[in-house]
Each structure stands twice: as structure tokens, then as C-alpha cells.
Amino acid sequence: MSIKVTLLGSAVSHWGEDPWARGSWSLIGRHGSPQDRIALGRPVSDRLWIAGEATHPTRAGMTHGAFEQGRAAAAEAIERGHATVVVVGAGMAGLGAAGLLAEHALEAEIWEARDRIGGRTAGVEVAGGAFDLGANWLQQYDENVLARLAERFGLRTFVTDFDDPAVLTGEPFPGGLEDDLRKRLAAAAPDASLADVLDDWLRDPAPWSPAEIHRFVDAEIVMDTGAPLSWLSARHGFEPGVGEGDRWIAGGYRRLTEHLAKGLRILLNRPAAGILIADDGVTVSGDDPEGGQWSRNADAVIVTAPLPVLAAGAITFDPPLPEPHRAALTRLGAGRVEKVILRFDRRFWPEHGYYRVHGPAQTCISEWLDATAADGTPTLVGLFAGDWLGTLWTGTDAEIATRVAGIFRNAVAESQAVHCRPPAPPTPPGTR
Ligand SMILES: Cc1cc2nc3c(=O)[nH]c(=O)nc-3n(C[C@H](O)[C@H](O)[C@H](O)COP(=O)(O)OP(=O)(O)OC[C@H]3O[C@@H](n4cnc5c(N)ncnc54)[C@H](O)[C@@H]3O)c2cc1C
């Protein structure tokens, strides 16, 4: 069946190459643990805090975790009596930190490297509508502080049921696999990787088939991390977050960040390159485009630059960060999940809400949100992870968009049946 449809507009993310992100969200590598997140967030000389999603022990990789960490760092700076604070980064953590400092009438200035606020929440206009190339959902909705703010600001949100995707290619995997995996991960050796556990599992996969296990791992781990399984910690690499009442925001996260930024002093195009910590204060500095130097003295600094940006040495600390912080930067890392937004003249896919498309090989996975409800124009938001990115994310953005639109169209056209709700787990041997 050929589907005649016109692509009205598209946008494509490049988080892996973005110098101010260097990946999508933080993850725990095989030598790390949540303790590294805590260590990274500990104050240095009572004047420097590293905040941001990577420092949250239980809500890492999510906007509300970042926001909470920014506010927690600001609260500690206030408690220590600091009156002037520089905040590096205007993402959720930076906006949270500066917002609390402003509530206490303290002098706060945000230095933001980009020409926009929001960081890894990144609004984009596509064919007359506003969508997100970064964070999409308010996760863990019931206990999400940003969800409460979205409600207070009167933002329109839509629920996504991640447990019930329409599987357009292949069969859905059976229920029960996650419980089995969780048991295996909890029993793994401290330094084991997710790949080690998977290898063991595939040696004795019953009652599942190897193909079911692979589809499950691709959908649940590769899609949620975008990292190589051989790097991810078995015990800590599969962190909670997705699928707890998640809602996306009509008009995108920008509707939220614009509220949060109101009244704050934010300097855009102002990358911080050096932080000097002395007994009586801190100096934050950076290179201005005219060949000179920006510099600002303050009582304290809260750094919310993403973990891989810090690990790459984009900011020099004098004296260097303490050993536990430096160790944490090596044990944590980030994966790569990329997004595409496609708007069409008509909807050619079955109405369902959320879709999964497995790629041509293992660890090739994409998931798709139907975001048509935002303004009525047929819209798909696709997320891609794994080995597929190497072949799909090449050439111009228009080429990438056309290529991945073709993948979704073929999946719809070829799918014999749209599989929803996972089938029940197989009966364990001996109980039939
Ligand atoms: C594709 C994708 C999908 C996602 N989906 C979701 C989702 O659905 N729900 C969810 O909760 N989370 C999601 N996330 C994760 C979420 O976006 C992040 O966890 C959160 O936005 C991080 O906030 P942050 O303030 O810690 O970091 P950031 O948002 O990265 O903010 C840090 C800021 O620091 C700036 N900066 C960096 N270096 C410097 C420097 N040297 N000087 C000055 N400024 C600097 C950056 O430009 C940036 O603005 C997603 C992320 C991606 C990439």
C-alpha cells in the first residue's frame, strides 16, 4: 500500500554533537553508583555547588530532578549567608537555583553559553506549532514539582501510556520480562555491565525466546539510555522515571521555562570557562568574542553545566575539583537519544498515541508520540537510539527527516496488525 502524504515541516535534534550538552542525559557506568551522583553535588569549600540532573540520586535525567537540585544548591548557598551568586547555565537546574535566590532577594546572575534559555528543554517551531527537541514529558507526574507549576500556570498537558504502545514492527514482548531482568540486575556483581547480564540471560533464556529478550532490552534499556550496554552499570544503569503518569505539554516546555525565567538576570552567549575559588569568594570568567575576558566576583557559584561538558574540561576549576567529584565525572556518563518532529498534511497512521518501531538489527529502536492533539495538525515526535543513529543521523536535517519519516511510513504500511497491550507471560515450565 503506498501512502500519499506531504511533510509540512520537520526539525531534528543533535544532542550528541551539541557542545553544551554532549549527550542526552546522565547515566551510571559499570564502575559507578548513585553515590557518585551524591558526591558530585557536595559543596566545594562552601562556595561551589555542582547541581543539575546528574546530581539527583533518584530523579536523575529528568527535568524535575534538575530543578530540585538547582533549588537545593541555592538553599545551601543561602543557608551559608552568601549574598551574591553566579549561576552557570539557564536550564531547569539554573532556573530553579536563580529563582530561589531571587525569592530571597539575593543578587543572582545566570551565565548561559547558548543564545537561549532552557538547556536540554529546547522548544522549536515547526509548521506553525511549537514542540520539544529535548525533554518532552513531565515524568513521575504525581510527585513532579514542575507538574504542579504547569498546573498553576494553566498549561495544557496530555497523558502518554508507555505501557501500551502500538508495536508497528515485530511482536510486542510478553509481560514479566522486566521483573525477571530486575532480579538478574540486583544479583549482578558490583562491576558487571548490562551486557554481562544480558549475555548470561541469553545463555539460558527460558521461558522467553532470545528475540523477545532482545526486543525488550531495546525498548526498555537502549531506548531509555541511548548508551552501549557494555558501558552501563548492571546494578544502577536502568534507573526509574519513564511511565509514571507522564504528560507532555502542548506548546512545549518553553511554556514553563518562560514563566520560570521571569524577572531573573540572565546573560546569554556567556560561556563560563574558569572558576577560581578563594577564601573570600569566587571569580567566574570566560572569553568574550572581542578577545577580552568577562569576569565576575561573587560569594558563591552554582554550576549546572551538563555532566559530559564538565567531564570534557569545558570549565577549569582552580583549585581543581576534589577527588570524589573528579571520580564521579569518570564513572557517570551520558547516552545519545535523538528526536525528530514531523508534521504532515494528514494522519496516515492508526490513532493510538504511542508507537514502537524496531529497526533492522538489534539495538536499533525508535518510539513515536502522536502529538496531533497539540493543535490538530498531524504531528509525530520520534525518538531514536542505539546503532541506528550511526546510519540515520547523517546528511542535512531535511535528509534525516525524510529518511526517518520513510521508516515510520513503511512500518505503518507493512504492519499486518497493530499490537497493543503486551501478551501475558508464558506459563513457567512444569505448571501447565
Ligand atoms: C532528547 C531528550 C529527551 C528528554 N526527555 C525528557 C523527558 O521527556 N522528561 C524529562 O524529565 N527529561 C527529559 N530529558 C532530560 C532533561 O532534558 C534533562 O534532564 C534536564 O533538562 C537537565 O536540566 P539541567 O538544568 O540539569 O541541564 P541543562 O538543561 O543541560 O542546562 C544546563 C545549561 O548549561 C549551559 N551550559 C553548558 N556549559 C556552559 C558553560 N560553560 N557556561 C555557561 N553555560 C553553560 C547549557 O547551555 C544549558 O543551558 C530529555 C533530554 C533529551 C536530550
Quickly list its features.
2 domains, six-stranded mixed sheet, globular, alpha/beta, 29% helix, FAD/NAD(P)-binding domain, 432 residues, disordered C terminus, five-stranded parallel sheet, binds flavin-adenine dinucleotide, single chain, Polyamine Oxidase, Chain A, domain 2, 23% strand
How do the strands and helices of this protein lay out in sequence?
Elements: E1 7-12, E2 26-28, H1 34-40, E3 48-50, H2 63-79, E4 84-88, H3 92-103, E5 107-111, E6 123-126, E7 129-132, E8 137-138, H4 145-152, E9 157-159, E10 166-167, H5 177-186, H6 194-203, H7 210-225, E11 247-249, H8 254-261, E12 266-267, E13 274-278, E14 281-287, E15 293-298, E16 300-303, H9 307-311, E17 316-318, H10 323-331, E18 332-334, E19 337-344, E20 354-358, E21 364-370, E22 379-386, H11 388-392, H12 397-414
Parallel strand pairs: 3-16, 4-5, 4-16, 5-12, 10-20, 13-17
Antiparallel strand pairs: 1-19, 2-18, 6-7, 8-11, 9-11, 13-14, 14-15, 19-22, 20-21, 21-22
Helix pairs in contact: 1-10, 2-3
The structure holds flavin-adenine dinucleotide.
The site of flavin-adenine dinucleotide has 41 residues, from α2, α3 and β19.
Kindly state the number of beta strands. Answer: 22
Strand order within the widest sheet?
1-19-22-21-20-10
The percent range for helix content is 25-40%
Low-confidence stretches: 428-432
CATH second-level architecture of the largest domain:
3-Layer(bba) Sandwich
- Average pLDDT figure: 94
Q: Indicate the overall shape.
A: globular
CATH class of the largest domain: Alpha Beta
* Fourth-level CATH superfamily of the largest domain: FAD/NAD(P)-binding domain
Report the sheet with the most strands, covering strand number, pairing sense and barrel closure. 6 strands, mixed
Number of structurally distinct domains: 2
Distance between the termini: 42 Å
Question: Which ligands, by name, code or SMILES, are bound?
Answer: flavin-adenine dinucleotide
Can you tell me the CATH topology of the largest domain?
FAD/NAD(P)-binding domain
Rg from C-alpha positions?
A: 22 Å
Helix tally equals 12
Residues in β-strands, percent: 15-25%
